[in-house]
Amino acid sequence: MRVLAAMSGGVDSAVAAARAVEAGHDVVGVHLALSRMPGTLRTGSRGCCTIEDSMDAQRAANVLGIPYYVWDFSERFKADVVDDFIAEYSAGRTPNPCMRCNERIKFAALLEKALALGFDAVCTGHYATIVTDAAGNRELHRASAWAKDQSYVLGVLTAEQLAHAYFPLGDTPSKQLVREEAGRRGLSVAQKPDSHDICFIPDGDTKGWLAEHVGEAPGDIVDRSGAVVGAHEGAHAYTVGQRRGLRLGTPAPDGRPRFVLEVRPKENTVVVGPKAALATAEIAGSRFTWAGMPPVDPATPFACEVQIRAHADPVPATAVVADGELVITPGQPLDGVAPGQTAVVYVGTRVLGQCTIDRTVSAIPVDA
């Protein structure tokens, strides 16, 4: 099998490529240059696609004895991930850029180019597994180690993309074993720290970055009744569930802290209220996809589990497709769900599908 190994410069993708070589596949390594922003070029950047990372990937490819290339996807990345991030925040939503990168770059743009060049699969260092059922359909499942499981961020993959995806690390019990394997293989990235934060915001200051790219627009902070209780310099700087940094001029009647419940960009207002009002009884999204075969009858409610963050615990739920939306009702209220987040639906260990959350229904009535 001809395999294109996406090599980020980290230990996971290096070991994944090594395992693909060891399995006897014809492997070519590729590093994606995703950003031309100056901040991502300096030493110490905490993202995942820096100049240093490309050199680490090059060294790993040399050790493995495979061809290596750097592909410039920066324009596509800016349009599909960075600009989308700005647009979502401007619309009062909370996006997940890693989901968009997997959806539109690694398993869309990269896979399209790989297939056009005659490759059979794209290999990555994600911790997830692919299972083929009796009928030959491929299913996406959680990794064997739940502590490192990354199936949530892969929930955007479609059946066609799964058909050409290859995750060699899915059955590995721990990240430490991957590091030890990298050391035995002579890979210099064996003890390289994991990347974190948003790769195109290398200093981690998301609020400052958004202020620079979206601009400041002073407005009101209101309670659930509409009464003004404070002011803000830009609604984009607030997310559902936020408590710190509100600087409210009017204390709550009960003296308890208040949290961001909603961001209304059209009105340029931020709505705050008690923590109890963050409880969400229903979520829904019209932008949904199935990871492999869909339910036999998605218009009939079916039992599942829903996960709304990469490291959140799954919650038992019921889901149904109605009026063009995937509507999910958790068995217990979810805390602090924001439009723009991704809800991934599981059945057992299998990723069934996902939706970008468009709307939420609070478990606490406004007049409560």
TrEMBL record:
Residue numbers binding ATP: 6-13, 32, 125
Pfam families found in the cross-reference section: tRNA_Me_trans, tRNA_Me_trans_C, tRNA_Me_trans_M
Organism: Agromyces mariniharenae
UniProt function note: Catalyzes the 2-thiolation of uridine at the wobble position (U34) of tRNA, leading to the formation of s(2)U34.
InterPro entries: MnmA-like, MnmA-like_C, MnmA-like_central, MnmA-like_central_sf, Rossmann-like_a/b/a_fold
Keyword tRNA-binding: yes
Domain tRNA-specific 2-thiouridylase MnmA-like C-terminal: 283-357
Protein name: tRNA-specific 2-thiouridylase MnmA
Record-stated family: Belongs to the MnmA/TRMU family.
Broad class of the protein's primary localization: cytoplasm
GO CC entries: cytoplasm
Gene (name only): mnmA
